[in-house]
Amino acid sequence: MTTYTNFTVETDTDGIALVTWDMPEKSMNVFTAEVMDELEAILKATVADAGVKGVVFTSGKSSFSGGADLTMIRGLFSLLHEEQAKDPQAAKQKLFDVAGRMTWLFRAIETNGKPWVSAINGTCMGGAFELSLACHGRVAANSKSVKIALPEVKVGIFPGAGGTQRVSRLANAQDALQMMTTGQSLTPQRAKAMGLIHQVVEPGELVTAAKQMIKDGLKPVAPWDEKGFKAPGGGVWTPAAAQLFPAAPAILRRETAGNYPGALAILKCVYEGLQLPFETALKVEQRYFTQILGTTEAFSMIRSLFISMQELGKGARRPAGVEKSEFKKIGVIGAGFMGASIAYVTAAAGIPVVLIDRDQEAANKGKAVSEKLVADSVAKGRMTKEEGEKLLSLVTPTPDYQTLADADLVIEAVFEDRAVKKAVIEQVEAVIRPATIFASNTSTLPITGLAENSKRPDQFVGVHFFSPVEKMMLTEVILGEKTGDRALATALDFVAKIKKTPIVVNDTRGFFVNRCVFRYINEAYDMLIEGVPAAMIENAAKMAGMPVGPLSLNDEVAVDLSQKIMKASIADLGEASVKPAHMALIDKLVNDLDRRGRKNGQGFYDYPPKPAKKSLWPGLKDFYPQKPAAEVDVDTLKQRLLVTIALEAARTVEEGIVTDPREADVGSILGFGFAPYTGGTLSYIDGMGVKTFVALCEKLAAKYGEHFAPTPLLKDMAAKGETFYGRFDPYGQGRVAA
Ligand code: NAD
């Protein structure tokens, strides 16, 4: 047996070398420069050793590999930025060479003369699947944990290590494009049906089956290196391709509004590559890959959606020196809409939870939500019956506060009413242990104020969930003035346990996410009042990259909730805090027309019974004189919607509400889907340059109002040529990457 840092190689009596990838001190195998060096050494050694007849490549971990390593990608960008300043042309060349390292290493495996079989035992993503594609045989275990994907497009790039060329030569072009432009995961069965893998076998037989392929005489030649090779479907000059390729860019444009250069590059690589000899096609892919790596979109998306998201998830903001929390029991008070789902996600993480409401019946109603979610998951095959029963056994509905006596953390999700919350805080504190942390899921009440009802405000924290809790990946952790480190650490540990991404926000009205969301919705009110047709507002938002238009979003959160929040704002901050025309619009919808949103079937949209689809309410047209569509500039609408949100995010930084740019970026994408291709609110500003952003704000302020005026911080940054990630360096101030 030969041992490398990340691999072991063991050759059996049949001359088959089993290469097992098992990186020390990592839960998941990833590609690093060292891994590639070792892989190259293994390739050389197995080629040189006449006793080796073939190679089986597998993983020693429960998953196969997650693909590229964060630090490697970060290194690529540093390289680009540093070298670009010195010599742009040389920087491009260097990036091209680095980007090609995997491509040509995998090609060397493919052409080494001895058969390689990849034995895929678990999740196999990105570069790891591209390596597998370069092997001559691929066997996957028949297991739910095997997920195969080329998900690079989700972080703004694309499979650039031969993926676009091999997938489109194994599967038909339509399936290939679908898989790569969506980044969707495939089951082993689906991958086999597409032609991407050869066999699916029971997990215990994986390596044996892989070795058997070699013993059965697997040819060490890729299909495309054989004379007369034809891609499935026949390449690009066939009637089927004549239907697919002209339509594909249009479909992609419909799905992405042209905002994702990485997705478009996949189409180009496949279309151009299929017309070329294989190695020339690899070079074309390498060129596009280099080009895409140089885009602002790729840089910002990788930073936010890959690096920052993982860092925040791993506790980048967790105070050091606080012992890791153990959760043996969680209490949730209020078994309503939010509390019931919070109990579900807690139990789904394997933690026992008591779900308390005012009486047994109300508590049971809360548990019924878990029962329904479990039944749905079992029916869809996402959970076994036993797993479902186990989950449900962890949820105990009760009106009895005494059951909280041994809880480690209590989360309150009762009515949004200060008096009700005060009573609950007192009732809970009367029974819990001195060390227990109390968290409130309030969405509008400042944590500092609520904590005044607590005898131990240092153990009081906000944990703000988003609905639907079981789907939304973000949780805001809110610090009151007196919240202590242990409360913060406990909240972050809990959020990590339920597999959500936290952002840490200082106390403010609306916290981070809702402050941004209301700016988005308010801008849409302004547009309506100007006479912009509602459909144009909604479409402009989608074209700007927002997943949901502002009016549709307002219907989801409820129009009467907006009314409540506006009224509370007027009561607390004065008349000037809400535009009278906005109040008039919402009062008319709610008070006069009972249009409260999706929940009562009518809001900005009409919601007819299924299967009919919702449509914008035509009556909205009569509220304000309508501008002819030709007089409305869609690009300006797009800018207004994104700029108003980004400006609000910048204000939260200026006010010290958000202190780490990673949180404003990740929070905006996970919280309300802020145009992901921008990398989030602050990356949107950094990406265009603060100076450009300030100029844009000034232009919009002159025409659409003072709310677009750039803030002092932005002006200062523009004058100094700073960026958010430079001025508020997340890796400075003693903070480190997790
Ligand atoms: P809800 O009305 O659906 O549920 C509240 C539950 O609390 C009810 O079941 C009620 O019976 C129970 N309750 C009231 N007083 C109680 C008491 N003294 N003891 C025990 N139980 C009591 O409300 P919701 O939408 O789930 O909101 C709950 C909290 O979550 C609020 O603070 C709200 O601001 C916040 N929140 C809501 C959303 C949302 O989208 N609805 C999102 C984030 C946060």
TrEMBL record:
This is 3-hydroxyacyl-CoA dehydrogenase/enoyl-CoA hydratase/3-hydroxybutyryl-CoA epimerase. The keyword Lipid metabolism applies. Signal peptide: none annotated. The keyword Membrane does not apply. Keywords: Fatty acid metabolism, Lipid degradation, Lipid metabolism, Lyase, Multifunctional enzyme, NAD, Oxidoreductase. Residues 510-607 form the 3-hydroxyacyl-CoA dehydrogenase C-terminal domain. The lineage of its organism: Bacteria, Pseudomonadati, Pseudomonadota, Alphaproteobacteria, Hyphomicrobiales. It holds the Pfam family 3HCDH. It catalyses: a (3S)-3-hydroxyacyl-CoA + NAD(+) = a 3-oxoacyl-CoA + NADH + H(+). Pathway: Lipid metabolism; fatty acid beta-oxidation. It comes from the Bacteria. Residues 329-508 form the 3-hydroxyacyl-CoA dehydrogenase NAD binding domain. In the central section; belongs to the 3-hydroxyacyl-CoA dehydrogenase family. GO terms for biological process: fatty acid beta-oxidation. GO terms for molecular function: enoyl-CoA hydratase activity; long-chain (3S)-3-hydroxyacyl-CoA dehydrogenase (NAD+) activity; NAD+ binding.
